[in-house]
tripeptidyl-peptidase II (Cladophialophora chaetospira), 624 residues
Amino acid sequence: MHTKIWCLGTCVFLLSAAVAAPPSQSDVFEKLDSVPYGWYQGDFAPDPHQRIKLQIAVQQQDKHVLLKDQLLSISTPGHFLYGQHLSPEELNTFLRPDPTVSSAILAWLQEASIPEIDIEDNGDWFSIHATVEQAEKLLKTQFRYFHHVDNAVPPRLRTLQYSVPHHLHRFIQMIQPTTHFSRAKPYQVGGGSDGPIPVYGSPTKLNVTYCNATTPPDCIRALYKIGNFKANSSSGVKLGISGFNYQQAVHTDLALFLDKWAPKQNASSFNVKTSNGGVNNENGAEVWAAEANLDIQYGVSLAPGIPATFYKTGGLGPLIPDLQQPNNSDSLDVQEPFLEHLQYLLNLSQKDLPTVLSISYGEDEQSHPVSYMKSVCQLFAKLGARGVSVIVSRYVFSCLYILGRLFTYISGDGGPGDGCMTNDGKNTTRFQPQFPASCPWVTSVGGTEQVQPEIATWLSGGGFSDVFARPDYQAKQVGAYLNNTVGEKRFKGLYNRTGRGIPDVAAQAQTTFPIFHMGKERYDGGTSAATPVWAAIVANINSVRLSQGQKPLGFLNPWLYSVGYRGLTDIIHGGSQGCFDAALGSGLLAPEVPFAGWNATKGWDAVSGLGTPNFEKLVQIATT
C-alpha cells in the first residue's frame, strides 16, 4: 500500500507554466461550415432563461499519459504494481488538474455570471448548469433550435460555432453539447423467428452436428470448457451489461430463456440501473431491438452465481454521417451516449462498480468526432485503473435471408469495413475501423463460426485504428501479422499500418444464438453475441481469483498478450469480408474493394485476434 501511494505521489506533478487568468481574446474553438444534412435552423431564438447543461473536458496530456502508464503497470503480470487498482479517491487525486488550470477555467465561468453553485468540478471534467444567456456569453455564440426534416425527431438546441479564450485552448479538449447533432428515428428491421428450437446440447460434451446449427448456452459451455461451473455468489464479482438507444432488457424473456436453456438457473435475474434519462420499458420492446435481451440472456446463463446489472443510459452521442449512418430520415442513429454512460459508472462507489462490463455497441470511427473518441477512451482507461474489465464489440444493423430466415446482424459485422468511403468530403476509398473497439483500453471481440474446427467468420469486424496508435502490449504480435501475412503492398493506402489492431480475442458469432424476445423464440447473433460470452467467462475467472484472495484481472490486454494467450485456441482458418458495393446498414452505394478482408492465421490476426477462450486453461493461468 505504501508503495502504491509513493508511486502516485511521484507521478502527480504541477505544470511548469503558470496559467494566470488575465483576460484574453476569445478565438473560435470549434466550427461547422454548414448545418448538417437533414437539419435546418428554426426561426425563433430560445428563451434566454432556459437552462442547459454543458460539459467541459479538461485537456491534460501529461497526466493522461501518466494514467496510461499507471494502468499498464497495474495490468501487466510481473510488474510490482500488478493488481493494485486505484480507488475513486486515488484516481481523482491522480488526475486532478494543476490548481492554476482549474482556477483559470473557474474564473472564465464566473466572468460569464455562472454562479459557483451551478459548477461541478470533477477534476478532469466540469459540468455547468447555465441559462442560454449565460452559455452564449461564455462561448461568444448564439444558440438556436435546429429542426430535422423528419418532424418526429425532437429539435436540438445547438450552435454552429463557439469560442474559448485563447489562453485556455490548450487546456480544453471539448465542450458538449454545442456543434454535435444526432438523429433519433428507429430503423425498422424485422426479427427472425423460427418457432420452437430443439434442445440437444450438453454443457460437458460437444455435439458437433447440433452446435454447428444452433448455439445455445450448453454448446458454448462445452466448446469453451466451461462445463457446469458455477461461481461463488459471495465472491464479490459483478457483471455489467450496457444498454442504449431503443434496447430494453426484459425479465419475463429471461425467465423463458432460462426455463428452456438453463433450467437449473431459472431463479436467476438481473438488476436495472438507469442514467441520463434512460428508461428500460419492458412493455415497449421493438421486434428488431433484441440486443439487450441477447446480452442479458447469455451473460446471466453463462455466469451463474454472479449478480448481473443492466445499465441503461439515455440520449444519443454525436454523429458525423457516413455511408453506414447517413443523416436522413429513413436511417437509424445508433450513436451511443458513451460519455454519459462512462461518467455514470465512474461515479459509482467501488462496491457498486461492475467487475466486468459488456458493451455490444459501436460504429465506424469516422462517425464520431475525434475529440469525443479521445475523451471516451480516457474514461475507459479510468475504468481499467479501477479494476474493471471492459469487453467491447461493434453495433451495426444489416439483414440477410438465409434458408428462408431473416437474420438481423447487430455488432461487429462487416469485416474490414461496411461502406468503405471517407466522410471528410474527399470520398476516399478506405477501410473503416470501429469505435470503441479501437480504444486501446478495452478488450475488443471478433467472431467465429462452426465448432470443429472453429473458424473465423466472414462478418467479424477488425482492422487497424485511424485514431489510436498501436499500444506496446500488442506491438510484437500485430507487427508479425502485418509483416508475415499482409505484407507492404496488400491493401496499401486503405488502412493505417501503425494503428491499434482489433480485435483482441474472438468467440462464436454465428447467427444461430436462440433467444427469447417479446415472448417468442428467435435466432440472433453477430459479435454482439460473442461479447457477453467473453464477459461471462472473464467474470467466472475473476470469481475464482477473488475466492482465492487474489485481485480481479481488471484491464485484460497486457495479461492476454503476455501470458493469457496460452489459454486461448488459435483460430487459423477462415477470414472476414467487407467493402461491398453497398453499405449493409443503409443500402447506399459504396466503393467496392475486391477481395477486401483479413485472413485468420497462426498467432494474432485482424479477424479473430489471439483466439477463442478455453476456460479451464485460462483459470489455471490466471490463478498461478
In short: Confidence is low (pLDDT under 50) at residues 1-21, 183-193, 328-333, 395-412. The first strand starts at residue 26 and ends at 31.
